[in-house]
């Protein structure tokens, strides 16, 4: 259950980040260049896909009765963290999912 919760939070953050970077303003803020239209559309599609996968992870953790409610909490938490990080450390905000992935794999291997 805990690994599904961590996966849901990670996917919610990745989804919110991808949707954020799918906007030209925020992409320029992080990477100091304009994104190509195909990249913007890919980031938006990937963001929605990650949010749907986050919903499925939440349902796996809590069931269909509480999963969608917990999912709204996870995307709110992920969005709040992104809002706090993006103005001050935009590269850290973009790189955070890469640092969190090995920790999730370690938690899965340990059996949390």
How many structural domains?
A: 1
Evaluate the radius of gyration: 14 Å
Q: Catalogue the unreliable spans.
A: none
Describe the biggest sheet?
Answer: none
Mean pLDDT: 91
By DSSP (H or I, 4+ residues per run), the number of helices equals 4
One letter per element, helices H and strands E, the order comes to HHHH
| Computed structural class | mainly alpha
Inertia-based shape: globular
- Proportion in helices: over 70%
For the termini, the CA-CA separation is 8 Å
Beta-strand level of the residues, as a percent range? Answer: under 5%
User: How many strands appear in the DSSP assignment?
Assistant: 0
What does this structure look like?
The protein is mainly α and 112 residues long. It is globular, with a radius of gyration of 14 Å. Helices cover 88% and strands 0% of the residues. The protein has one domain. It has helices spanning 2-21, 24-31, 37-85, 90-110. InterPro entries: DUF3325. The chain crosses the membrane at residues 6-24, 45-63, 69-86, 93-111. This is Iron uptake protein.
Search tags:
single chain; 112 residues; mainly alpha; 4 helices; transmembrane helix; Iron uptake protein; DUF3325; membrane; transmembrane
Q: What can be said about this structure in brief?
A:
The chain is mainly alpha-helical and 112 residues long.
How are the secondary structure elements laid out?
Blueprint: H1 2-21, H2 24-31, H3 37-85, H4 90-110
Helix pairs in contact: 1-3, 1-4
């Amino acid at each position: 259950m805990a690994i599904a919760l961590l996966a849901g939070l990670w996917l919610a953050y990745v989804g919110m980040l991808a949707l954020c970077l799918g906007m030209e303003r925020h992409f320029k803020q992080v990477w100091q260049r304009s994104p190509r239209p195909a990249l913007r559309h890919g980031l938006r599609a990937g963001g929605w896909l990650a949010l749907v996968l986050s919903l499925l992870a939440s349902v796996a953790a809590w069931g269909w009765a509480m999963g969608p409610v917990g999912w709204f909490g996870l995307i709110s938490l992920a969005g709040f963290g992104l809002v706090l990080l993006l103005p001050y450390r935009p590269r850290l905000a973009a790189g955070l999912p890469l640092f969190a992935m090995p920790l999730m794999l370690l938690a899965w291997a340990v059996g949390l």
